[in-house]
Write a structure and sequence with these properties.
With 336 residues, the chain is an alpha+beta fold. The protein is built from ten helices and 16 strands.
Length: 336
């Protein structure tokens, strides 16, 4: 994702990828855009390097994202540090969205197995850590015994040992990718999410985008308007994971950073790079642009498990391979 973003923004401004020295074996001829960081003194090094740049975009898991937001305060393009803290946490996210009149499932924070009366829950429920991403340690529970077992696992997975129990919502899995600035919706896309449920474990397997159902797109736009009006100072890329039921989105969590569908968005509509720069620079620009209205192509992202455990990072415009994971992007053109 960082490579996709850097390549895109390099069309408009000089851009570098700041990554760990441990990834200096990256196999890609454009790696001259990379600048390597000594992570043994990370806080000090990143603060010094940040002084050389006008703006910095961070792509990181929740805990690391919050830490970097505090270090890079004022330099980082994206929501405020406070909003990043709220939207990175699966419990506080739900409360923040509910205050805006956005539909969310009933969600309860858990700090210990003894916090829960498992017999009183309305099954099925979803159990997940508060501060992880990528569907890691997310479980479906259909009865009290399963719920108790999965709450214990989710608490162990979470770096702060917190979890949530969330009412399961039946419907189609999806996500929303949006860029906001100056209290306005600049750009958005609705993406079908490929989610696998096996042995009560949810796994993210990719996306298909953009969704072209006009009813769904209209309802998603209304959701984003509510969010923008409620938090008018939000800037940057925000991702929402949703379940679509009767064409209406129900938000189950949020991500205050770039998310995987951006790889496809950049391929389908490269102008999104200019939008990001113009938003950063406070330039006037068009707003409320929907991806499905500016491209007739469709992108598919597939995430696969591989047998190899070799820790070589290999990537290009349509492939990303690292360890046991392989991500591939394909573009479908309209027939005729």
């Amino acid at each position: 994702m960082a490579y996709t973003l850097a390549k895109l923004l390099n069309n408009y401004v000089e851009t570098h990828i700041l990554i760990s020295h441990s990834l200096s074996h990256v196999h890609r001829y454009v790696i001259n855009t990379a600048r390597y960081i000594d992570c043994s003194h990370f806080d000090e090094n990143i603060s010094e390097i940040a002084e050389e740049y006008d703006r910095i975009i961070v792509i990181a898991p929740p805990i690391e994202l919050i830490k970097l937001a505090k270090i890079l305060d004022g330099k980082m393009w994206g929501p405020t540090t406070n909003m990043i803290e709220i939207l990175s946490d699966k419990h506080t996210t739900i409360a923040a969205l509910e205050r805006c009149g956005i539909t969310v499932p009933k969600t309860v924070e858990i700090r210990g197995v003894s916090d829960v009366d498992f017999e009183s829950l309305e099954y099925p429920v979803v159990v997940k850590p508060c501060m992880l991403a990528g569907s890691e340690c997310v479980y479906m529970s259909r009865n009290p015994n399963d719920a108790k077992k999965y709450v214990a696992k989710a608490l162990m997975c979470d770096p702060l040992h917190r979890a949530v129990i969330q009412q399961y919502v039946e419907g189609a899995h999806g996500s929303i990718s949006t860029i906001m600035g100056h209290g306005k919706i600049i750009f958005y896309s609705v993406n079908k999410q490929l989610i696998e449920l096996e042995n009560n474990i949810f796994r993210y397997r990719g996306n298909i985008l953009p969704v072209r159902d006009s009813g769904i797109v209209k309802n998603v736009h209304e959701l984003l308007v509510k969010f923008a009006q409620c938090y008018s100072d939000v800037e940057g890329h925000i991702g929402f994971d949703v379940v679509i039921r009767n064409q209406k989105p129900i938000v189950v969590e949020a991500n205050p950073r770039l998310t995987t569908p951006f790889i496809a968005i950049a391929k389908l509509y490269p102008e999104v790079g200019r939008m990001i720069i113009d938003t950063m620079m406070n330039r006037p620009l068009d707003t409320h642009i929907y991806l499905g209205n500016v491209t007739d192509k469709t992108a598919t992202i597939i995430l696969m498990e591989r047998e190899s455990e070799a820790h070589h990072l290999v990537f290009d415009d349509s492939t990303f391979i690292y360890g046991k994971r392989e991500l591939r992007l394909s573009i479908d053109y309209p027939s005729g």
